Amino acid sequence: MPNRLFDLIVVSDCVLDIYYMVDKLPIEAGDFIVSRRAVLSPGGACTTALLARKLGLEVAVIDEIGDDPFSEILIRALKDAGIHTGLMKRVHGFTTVSNDIISSSGHAFVGYLGVGAGLDLRGLDENALRGSRAVFINGTYAALSEAAADALMRLARIARRSSLPVFLDPGPIINERTRGLVEEADVVLPNEEEAKSLFHASLEEAIHSIRNSGKVFAIKLGRGGAVVVDGSGPAHCAASSPRSILTTIGAGDAFDAGYVAGVLGGLDPIASCGLANAVASLRLEHLTPMEVPDLSYLLHLHTKRLGREGEEGVE
Ligand SMILES: Nc1ncnc2c1ncn2[C@@H]1O[C@H](COP(=O)(O)OP(=O)(O)OP(=O)(O)O)[C@@H](O)[C@H]1O
Ligand SMILES: [Mg+2]
Question: Does domain 8-27+34-305 have CATH number 3.40.50.150?
Answer without folding.
Answer: no
